[in-house]
C-alpha cells in the first residue's frame, strides 16, 4: 500500500482496554500506536514508575481503512468505534500524530486539559486568579488571555495568565 494513502485514525476502546486493543490490532498486522507517559504509582510498600495511556480510551491506527480492514478493526475485542462524523471515520492531522509521538514515553508531567477555543466561556481552577470566569480570547507566546466582561457597565477587561489552568464552563 502506498504510504500517502495511509492515514491515522483514532479508535475508541472500552474503559481500560487500550493495551488489549493495541495487542489485538497488532496481531492482525494493523499498524497501531498507543502513546503512553510515565507516572509514579503508589504500591503498598513502594512507589514505582509505570506507563499509562496518554489519552485513556484511545488507540491510533495507520490504515487506508479499506472495508476489510475497517471490519477487522471494529471486530477487535475492546473496540467501541472508529472516531468520525456521522459514522464516517475522519483521519487525524499528521501534525497531531507527530506531537503524540514526541510525547510518547516522556517522563515529563502531562495533564489532560479541557479543549478550549477562542470564545469559550471558562473558569480558572487554581492559582492566584482561582474562580475568575470569562471568555478565552487567544494564545500568543507564553501567555493566554482571558476576557472578563461586566455586562452592567458594558466594559471588558483582558487578563493575561501564565501556566494557565482553565476549565470550560457549560
Summed up:
With 170 residues, the protein is an alpha+beta fold. 17% of the residues lie in helices and 41% in strands.
What can you tell me about this protein's structure?
The protein has 2 domains: 3-103, 2-Layer Sandwich (Alpha-Beta Plaits); 121-168. Helix content is 17%, strand content 41%. The protein contains 3 helices and 13 strands; from the N terminus they run βαββββαβββαβββββ. It has helices at residues 18-27, 67-75, 94-103, and strands at 7-13, 31-33, 36-42, 47-53, 58-63, 79-82, 84-85, 88-89, 121-124, 133-140, 143-150, 155-162, 166-168. The chain has a 5-stranded antiparallel beta sheet, with no helix packed on it. It has a 4-stranded antiparallel beta sheet with strand order 2-5-1-6, with helices on one face. The protein has a two-stranded antiparallel sheet with strand order 3-4. β3 and β4 (47-53) form a beta hairpin. The mean pLDDT is 82.
Question: What structural keywords apply?
Answer:
170 residues, five-stranded antiparallel β-sheet, 13 strands, single chain, four-stranded antiparallel β-sheet, Alpha-Beta Plaits, alpha+beta, 2 domains
Amino acid at each position: 500500500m502506498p504510504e500517502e494513502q495511509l492515514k491515522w485514525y483514532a479508535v475508541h476502546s472500552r474503559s481500560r482496554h487500550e493495551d488489549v486493543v493495541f495487542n489485538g490490532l497488532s496481531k492482525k498486522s494493523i499498524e497501531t500506536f498507543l502513546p503512553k507517559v510515565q507516572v509514579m504509582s503508589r504500591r503498598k510498600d513502594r512507589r514505582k514508575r509505570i506507563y499509562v495511556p496518554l489519552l485513556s480510551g484511545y488507540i491510533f491506527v495507520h490504515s487506508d481503512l479499506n472495508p476489510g480492514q475497517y471490519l477487522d478493526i471494529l471486530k477487535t475485542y475492546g473496540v467501541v468505534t472508529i472516531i468520525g462524523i456521522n459514522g464516517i471515520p475522519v483521519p487525524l492531522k499528521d501534525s497531531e500524530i507527530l506531537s503524540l509521538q514526541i510525547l510518547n514515553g516522556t517522563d515529563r508531567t502531562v495533564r489532560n486539559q479541557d479543549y478550549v477555543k477562542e470564545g469559550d466561556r471558562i473558569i480558572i481552577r487554581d492559582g492566584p486568579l482561582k474562580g475568575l470566569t470569562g471568555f478565552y480570547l487567544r494564545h500568543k507566546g507564553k501567555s493566554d488571555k482571558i476576557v472578563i466582561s461586566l455586562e452592567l457597565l458594558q466594559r471588558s477587561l483582558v487578563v493575561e495568565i501564565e501556566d494557565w489552568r482553565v476549565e470550560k464552563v457549560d
